[in-house]
Design a protein that fits this description.
The protein is α/β, with parallel strands linked by helices. About 35% of the residues lie in helices and about 15% in strands. Strand 9 and strand 10 form a beta hairpin. The longest helix has 28 residues. The C terminus is likely disordered.
Amino acid sequence: MAPTNPRQCPRSCVLPIVFVPGIMGSRLKVTSSNKIVWDPPSTSPNKAERSRASDPKLDDEDIRRFGYTGGPGPHTESAARHRLARMEDIRSVKHIASTAWNWGFSNAAERRNRMIGPPGKQFSSRFLSVHFGTRDDLEDRVVEHLVDEKLNRGWGGVAWGSYGGFLRWLEYNLPGIIPLPAECSDLTTEVWAHPYNWSDDNKNAAQKLAKTVTQAKTSTRQAWANSDKKILDPIIITHSMGGLVGRSYALSFGGDTNCHAIIHGAMPTYGAAAAYKRLKGGFEGVSSFILGRNAPQVTALLANMPGGLELLPNQFYGANWLKITDENGGTLKQLPSANPFDEIYRDIGNWWRLVKPELINPEGDKNAALNAYGSHLAVAQSFAGELGQSGFHSQTKMFYGDSKQHKSWHDVNWKVRDPRFTLPDNGDAPHRRSCEPG
């Protein structure tokens, strides 16, 4: 008799993974000239993890090329790991030096010209595009015979200092860590990256993500067509603003049916108060040297970019996250009561406004710049409205950091230092020097 409840034996499985980086995590070039304008280095000390030195096992090719011990005896794996880590270290130092030279000494106008165009031009989604890299970019970072494959999968388009180690970890370490699906006896991962023009509306990046996912599914099935392996539906893993791209893909471009699940890491679901703080006071720490140390430098970039403005706290973030408090911590004013786009971002009169109009395009027409800024805000508000509070893949997982050393902002607090400070009835402060971001 045939069994009433037959069970199939588990099979070897292959899982396509598509990784979507955060804002500023994709390399960008000027489309018309192919000049690379955004290729940030990493300030992380963990350089070895971005090289093959961190691979679970080096293959014979690696050991033959890099395992020279400097004396008699065979080439060794430990010598190869040491040399690969050293090569990544040297490459990283050179990258930091060249980027610091290009960005660290650039004023606000020069930064805008590089990323937006000449003063007479406003933002265009076609001005910048992803630089997907060359063989030189992945040389010594992946095994020689896999360089072309990884370039085809988008690895060369991400900021390697931030994400190279993670891509490698997903492909080489993840299969031995995660619980296997019931139908799988073992697991192989095929990892793709989806770099995108982060200056543009995230909805455009989501539309292109649909093509990347389709390519990952098709290529994986073709690569394993002559095997008996089971090909699983892809999963998407996002970081930071990449989560908004993933949500838009799931909601508007078939993602809910074309991939199994989306995992979001540190996603600013309804925006991030840090975006307001950085437009008002610059980035923090060493990264500020490249990303912008003050309001003029950051405003000249992010206020001209729909993608950057889509990171602001939106209409679903909640009320009263922007506070003005007196010297004793008492609340003088808090905003917004409902919609930050109308109450804060479009306000150009009060000192707590998001941007000063003259900083948007330092060398260009102020009125044209302000009109363009208004258009970008409309795009950002519309994008947030489309995602709403329920625009998620049906199989969504999220994680975030919980470190006391690396806290994020939920509120932004302007603290009064001058006890003579009073807030007029119309809310317009008499002088701004009496307050600073808290």
